[in-house]
Write a structure and sequence with these properties.
- The chain is mainly alpha-helical.
- It has a 3-stranded antiparallel β-sheet, with no helix packed on it.
- The longest helix has 28 residues.
- The N and C termini lie far apart (58 Å).
Length: 145
């Protein structure tokens, strides 16, 4: 019985290891492609990965169900568009200037950390720099930089 349990435990560990994929982001600038393990592309690069347009399957569904799902997707898209237009209209020039200044400061900070990451450092310090860089990029994403 102990042998079966250990075999099942080993199988579970192998399955867990196979289930975790290495995440990466494909970025492109002027014909150059960059793969990064970060969630976001560096400054000047654009993400190449396409996002999923919809999550509704049409296999085995009646025409009425398909029409209802399409109406739902259209309503969700129009809501997202109107929300983004309202948020753009709500920002004043002063807010836009201060946000631009913060975005510029974050970009400078990210470049400084990236330059430090290129220098030879102990692995613990590299981990610290990697976490700082990820935090800066996350903050840039949250602010819409």
């Amino acid at each position: 019985m102990g042998r079966v349990t250990s075999s099942l435990a080993a199988l579970a560990i192998i399955a867990a290891a196979l289930g975790t994929a290495n995440a990466f982001t494909k970025c492109q600038r002027a014909g150059r492609v960059l793969y990064t393990q970060d969630l976001y592309c560096p400054t000047g690069f654009a993400s190449v990965a396409s996002t999923a347009i919809g999550t509704v399957s049409t296999i085995g569904k009646s025409e009425g169900v398909r029409r209802q799902e399409q109406e739902f997707l259209d309503a969700r898209a129009s809501t997202a568009r109107s929300a983004s237009q309202n948020s753009i209209a709500a920002t004043t020039p002063v807010q836009a200037q201060s946000q631009a200044a913060v975005c510029d400061a974050l970009a400078d900070q990210a470049r400084t950390v990236e330059a430090s990451m290129r220098r030879p450092n102990p692995s613990s310090w590299q981990d610290n720099l990697r976490q700082q860089h990820r935090g800066i990029r996350d903050q840039q994403y949250r602010m819409g930089c």
